[in-house]
Every structure is written in structure tokens, then in C-alpha cells.
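ingest -> validate -> predict -> emit
validate: passed (alphabet ok, no gaps, 316 aa)
predict: started
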Amino acid sequence: MTLQADQQTPVAKPSQLARMRDSDLWHSFVTHRGAVVGACLLVFLIVTAFAAPLIAPQNVYDSAELQLMNARIPPIWQEGGRWPFVLGTDIQGRDVLSGILYGSRTSILIAVFAVVFSLAIGVIVGLAAGFFGGIIDNVLMRFADVLLSIPTILLAILASAVAMGMLPPEWRALGAAGVIVFAITLSNWVQYARIVRAQTSVERRKEYVEAARLLRVSPRRIMLRHILPNTMTPVLVAATLSFGMAILAEATLSFLGVGMPASLPSLGTLIRIGNNYLFSGQWWIVLFPVLQLSLLVVSINLVGDWLRDALNPKLR
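emit:
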């Protein structure tokens, strides 16, 4: 009786967290020092950026908190520095640390939306081109080739300048973030389209797709339910790596004056403002935003490099 009772006792299924901890991907992550350091640093930078209203000494969007009498204060460890301006202030009396936190949040949000929109457009175009082939493939890919023939930053500058010129003057400050997202998306969706097209061209010839066609499954369902999941691994790796490039693209556009305005600072805007005073002794105005931008991009690239290696079956 005891033996039968033991045999009938149901075995508890491991939780989702336990299965994740036992997976090869998790083991690859925890044994990869660069990935762990990059992930921890990235989480810290993102959390502090979005917690800026709680931890920043100053609200950089409130002009009432900016006082010219506090302008050009050096970092707290230098002579003349004072609390709470730990990293000093700029020429407008804006706290550099607060500007970095709020600016990082703006840059991260712009990069996230740019990557999401680029991914959505690229996946749709790549699926259509790879699945249907023929004239649809030729038209879509030739258009993508035209965009690839133009340097990415020049295409982004052109798109940003044209879009900003079409907006009424009173809307340009509020619409600057959307314009930058549009400019980055216009130049970045092509890489996803080419990856998905190449994967789709291989998958559509496999037996499971032919079986779905014989069962009269609609092309849309075949593409979204069967082919798309098998193409997402290289796309996710590319999206992770391009996240850092999108942050750099936003910083470049803002640095060149076709991005975020000074009233809504991003990391690129802070670097552009500080660059004007680099040789006048106020080095901290440009140095700390540059360090923040570098840390963001490096941490993203560390995670992206690990993800590329972990999801590559040839390296397992």
C-alpha cells in the first residue's frame, strides 16, 4: 500500500524560474564575465535614468530651478565645488548630474522606439520579400539597396532636417523626439529586412511550410505563425546590437544640431553644449555626458556580443 501511494504521488513541475536557471542560455550568461558586467551596468544606467525625478538634485525641464548664479560650478572635489552639484553645473546653472540622468532617459526612449519601429518594418518587408519572391522581392530589396547606398548618418540628417522643416515652429521642440525616431528608423529597418528575407527564403522551402500550404493555410498565417518564429534569433541579436547604435545616432544628430533642442536635453545635446566650453576650462560640462554615453553603448555591446555567441549554434 505504501509503495502504491508513493507511485501515485504527483511530481511537482519545476517553476518557470527554475527552468530558466537550468537552461543553457542562463548558464552561458552567468559564466560570461563580460555579459554579467554589461548587464549589471546597463540595468544600473537604465534604472537611474528613469528614476531621475526621484534622485536628480534638479529638474532640468523646469526653468525656474536654473539660476545663473550657480553657473560653471566645478565638480564637488575641486576648489569652488559645492553640494548638491556633485558633477558641477553648466553655463545655465543646470546641474550636470541631473542633465545626464534626464538626458539618458530621453536618449534611451528614442533608441527603444527607433529599434521597435525599425524591427517592425524590417520584419514585415523581409517576410513579404522572402516568402513571395519574384517582383515583390525585387521591388522591396531594390528600394532597400537604394537606402543602403546612402550613408546612414547622412540619410538620418536629411530625414531629420526635412521633417523638422515641415513642422510648424511652435511644434518643433515637442516633435523633435518623434522626428529623430523617424530619421533613425528610416535608415535602420533595412538590416532587419535583409536578415528576415534571407531566413524566410530558406524556411519557405522546408517541408513544414509545404505541408501548411497543402492544408490550405493562409500565407499570412504561415508567415506569422510558422516562419517568423524561426527567423527571430538573428533578428533579436541584431536588435540588441543596433540599440547601442541608435543611441549613438541620436547623440550624433543632436550634436550636429538637428536633434533634441537645448530645452529638452539628451546626451547628444549635453555634449554639443559642453563642447563649446571644452577649451575654456569647463571640461566637466562635456566629459561626464561623454562618459555616460560611452558606458551605455559599451554595456549594450557587451550584452549583444554574448547574445550573439550564445545563440549561434556553430559556437556551442
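The chain is about 70% helix and 0% strand.
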